[in-house]
Amino acid sequence: FTNYLLGPDGTEYVFSHGQAPFRTVMTKRVPGGSWVDSNVPTATPSGTLWARAAIGGADGQTIHLIATTTPTGNGGVEYQGMNGVVLYYRSKDGGATWDITDQLLPGINSDNFTGTEVEGYAVDANGDNVSIFITNTWNDCIVFISENNGDTWTPRIVNDFPLTRYVVNTGYDPAILPVDPNAPVPEAIFTCDGSADVLVDASGITHCFYGSTYVNDIDTTDTGWTFYPGSNVGIVYWNSTMDDNDGVSAGYCPDINGNDTLDVTDISNYGYGLNTHPSAAIDQDGNLYLTYATVHELYVDVNAGMNFRKPYIVASTDLGATWNLPKPILDDELLQADSSEAPYIEAIFTSTAKVANDKVHCTFQADYAVFNFVNDATNEIPDGDATDNSIRYVGYPTAWALVNTKNVAPEALKFEIMPNPASDQVLVQYTSDRAQTANVELYDMFGNMVRKTTRASVGAGSGAAQINTADLPNGMYFVRLNLGNSFATRKLTVQH
Fold it and tell me: In what side-by-side order are the strands of the sheet with 121-126?
């Protein structure tokens, strides 16, 4: 579980954790020197695991590090009434000394949390602007933002979970849940799948990404809880210019054969979602890139009876307001001779360099069977060979990723929605420049699709679609017009 950092003076840092008693280890090498190890100081009774780190500060010498206290399932003990909780550490002199250790961020306490998601957290910094994104499947997803290099923090709610300090198998009343027409069952709750990323741009705006899913714990007689990996809400995107508990859908699982159905037999469980492991980048022009792992409906591991996961990429040129269609990172033209291998590998754990130049620099783990081999002590996983997996790198051209990115849209993609605000129904009027197919989708502010018209053939000229909004809760929605292979979105307010 290593993290690599490169300081502005060329100093290299690697953060990892050793064997029990667990400690976060910093391995440091100045230019021309040798690697030197040291432990990040902690007074936690059972140590810390799974660190994440970023370099910031006006002089580029501040290390911002987060790690989780060791959960009881890993041999640890509860920390201040919570089982596995993210703590913050800071060094302002390149790791020589640590002036902040074992710090709980504001609001993270046993009154609100039973713990925080193991590994579902991220940190990034740009100068004195620092952001820490902490997600939780059974609690709120919160980003903590600092404009003074970690001295003080402002929490923002990225996803507001409707239950407070929920303990699995204690049960809840579905009647208290917010109305969600996209939920698979009334008792299902929209939440994070345990994967997240955060990026801070040069202007200080924080960009958050998380995999989404639904969970359900209405049955308290079992030993766990239920999740819905087939939900294709996608990777949710939020930035600090948005309201709390806002966000839009970015990457999702594409319908490759175009039959309006995801032909997925079964999937391997990495996190709890269909779309997972978001990792983001930004270029000098402010274009955003999101890589993530999803499921390929045409490539199946016949031995396991499961569809392979593959890395995809989407891009945005308008600060994340809209995102283009998903593109496979394992592109035949890019990989050339290596493309023959793509249908037969599971590609997971996408990780992308924060800065993109002419390429988005993406790595992932590849294996010739689903469930990339980590360990298989029980031999329950079909792939029992630890030697046939590898870490792969792809430099995906940014020019390819930016093709068909929204608002460079042709005139045909400009459309009107009336009335706005809407109460009982809304009329979407558009113009098609040629014979093609068209349909309209309506998303709520969480990125959940709540309405969809049937895709139909249209000719050149005016077109229209009507959507019923009478039973929708008041709030902000997004209308998406799909016209041929292009799309555009506009905001809609529902107010009864």
Answer: 121-126, 129-134, 141-146, 154-159
Residue with tokens 């590998």: 345
Each residue's pLDDT tens digit, 78-122: 999 999 999 999 999 999 999 999 999 999 999 988 888 777 999
pLDDT, tens only, 18-32: 887 889 999 999 999
SS3 per-residue string spanning 427-462: EEEEEECCCEEEEEEEEECCCCEEEECCCEEECCEE
Model confidence at 407, in pLDDT bands (50, 70, 90)? Answer: very low
- Confidence band of 485 (pLDDT split at 50, 70, 90): low
Closest by Cα among 132, 128, 46 to 86: 132
pTM (two decimals): 0.80
Q: Residue 489 and residue 478: Cα distance in Å, rounded?
A: 6
126 Rama class: left (phi>0) / alpha (psi -120 to 50) / beta: beta
Lowest mean pLDDT among 79-88, 137-146, 485-494: 485-494
CA-CA distance, 365 to 375, in Å (whole number)? 14
CA-derived radius of gyration, the chain:
23
**φ, ψ (nearest 5 deg) of residue 344:** -115, 15
**pLDDT, mean of residues 249-267:** 83
Which tens digits make up the pLDDT trace of 270-284?
A: 767 889 999 999 999
Tokens matching residue 472: 């929708």
